[in-house]
């Protein structure tokens, strides 16, 4: 998370808490809770726990929908390798961001778009073990039957040959 975006977000959150003194105290509590969620998300991001950071930043955005949070959420998606959600987040932030912030976002969008989603990963094919396939048992049973028939014919022929030696006229 860049220092610039973190400082801007903290200033916005603190400003939102102080600037709305005429509103009920609930809005101040919401801004403080959003800042707490943002700080927790930033700590997760800096520790490399991007999925946890994504949850915390999403919760902060739900409490206080500042555009800078969209930028940070997109960075989490990018760090997780989720190109499409990252691009969507950066593009939404770009629409809402000021001119100076757009330069960094344009570079990130261009880099992610060039990388693209790439080819879809091959589907995971799970193969059943051979002994669980019907054709295996058909071949095995057919082979066993052929062996049994062959042994029976062999025994019959051997028995016939022995009897032929005893009775000379059967040859």
Structural summary, described in words:
There is one protein chain. By secondary structure, this protein is mainly α. It is built from 7 helices and no strands. It folds into 2 domains: 3-115, Serine Threonine Protein Phosphatase 5, Tetratricopeptide repeat; 130-170. 76% of the residues lie in helices and 0% in strands. The protein starts with a helix and ends in a 5-residue tail after the last helix. Helix 1 runs antiparallel to helix 2 (25-46).
Summary?
Helix content is 76%, strand content 0%. It has 171 residues and is mainly α.
Estimate percent helicity.
over 70%
Task: Look at the structure and give the CATH class of the largest domain.
Answer: Mainly Alpha
SS elements, strand count: 0
Strand content: under 5%
How large, in whole angstroms, is the Cα Rg? 37 Å
- Give me the strand/helix succession: HHHHHHH
Unreliable parts:
3-23
CATH architecture of the largest domain: Alpha Horseshoe
Indicate how many domains the architecture comprises: 2
Indicate the CATH topology of the largest domain: Serine Threonine Protein Phosphatase 5, Tetratricopeptide repeat
Distance between the termini: 100 Å
Provide the fold topology.
Blueprint: H1 3-19, H2 25-46, H3 50-63, H4 67-79, H5 83-96, H6 99-115, H7 134-166
